[in-house]
Amino acid sequence: MTIEAALKAAMDTIPDCIAAGYVDMETGMLLAANTLDADSADVLDVLAIAVANLFQGRGVSGFEELLRSAGVEEADNPGFGEIAVFSNDRLHIFLRTREYPDHAVCYICHNSANVALALTKSHLSLGPVAAAV
Q: How far apart, in whole angstroms, are the C-alpha atoms of residue 18 and residue 119?
């Protein structure tokens, strides 16, 4: 299965999902995408650059270091694996893959999506998406 097909299959299971992308955080490049409209494709291009800063930026890195120093998180853990961001009319879900910790999968859903179901379904999609890389 291609990465595009894996993203499409994931979108079909995630409620109100309108776009999916696969990002290499080292380069900030969008390696694959699947969208329902052109506007979402443009958003994914911008998100590809921002997602590395989201996972690896100073704020999140500092927070992760505080958790490690408090013994809450293991030292060899690559960091947060999942971040959800709500905007005015969208739910953005960012997931780091276990197989490739420098890669992230991004899903964009309408804000009408059932958040718990969207998070669960997006998390379940990680295996097939990473296997397609």
A: 14
